[in-house]
Amino acid sequence: MNGLILSLSDFLKTNAVEIRTDEYKVNIGCKSDIYVSFRAVKISDDKIYVNGKIKGLVYLECSRCLFVYGHSMEIVIDIVVDVVNGYFNVGEEVRQLLVLEIPMKPVCSRDCLGICKACGKHNKKNDSCSCDDGDGEFIRERWKELLIKATGGSENAKSKKKTYSSSQGLQEIGKLKT
């Protein structure tokens, strides 16, 4: 559904049209509650000036803690749209403006501490875990079994480390490929 496609016939009685949406459904890659209001003024038979606002929430996943939160948006529309075959699409312009305003690394709050790398607990402003990050021993213990399976050996195989110079490492990789 795109309720923001208008035609030149909407301007037969007047040179300006006002549009307000109760809720505008737009595909921007996440759930949203967007409201659009604008005024379209006919400049010529092939140009329309559009001025208005986009308001609402887009629901984004926090890049630190992975919780979904409502990100408030208020965007000003101030564009000139081309009329093609008697119609012009303000909806596509609205979609593009919304996509440009979505943050690349959304964060639910400045105080979000993210996920503890030791226990996996979500840490918010007044909620923190008591894990001692220290030397990462907790992480090594959690992944110990996977390491043993990956090396195909026992726990003792883990302690037999080989060190290579960069040229030796490349030779070893070459042997694996053949």
Provide a descriptive summary of the structure in words.
- The chain is an alpha+beta fold.
- The protein has 5 helices and 8 strands, in the order ββββββαββαααα.
- The protein has helices at 90-101, 137-142, 144-151, 155-159, 166-177; strands spanning 5-7, 16-20, 32-44, 47-61, 68-82, 87-89, 114-115, 122-123.
- The protein has a 4-stranded antiparallel β-sheet with strand order 2-3-4-5, with helices on one face. The chain has a two-stranded antiparallel ribbon with strand order 1-6.
- The longest helix has 12 residues, at 90-101.
- It is elongated, with a radius of gyration of 28 Å.
- The model has no long low-confidence stretch (mean pLDDT 77).
Low-confidence stretches: none
How would a crystallographer describe the biggest sheet? 4 strands, antiparallel
Strand order of the largest sheet: 2-3-4-5
Number of strands: 8
Shape by Cα distribution: elongated
Report the helical percentage.
10-25%
Estimated share of beta-strand residues? 25-35%
Give me the strand/helix succession: EEEEEEHEEHHHH
Task: List the main descriptive attributes of the protein structure presented here.
single chain; alpha+beta; two-stranded antiparallel sheet; 178 residues; 5 helices
Quick rundown:
The chain is an alpha+beta fold and 178 residues long.
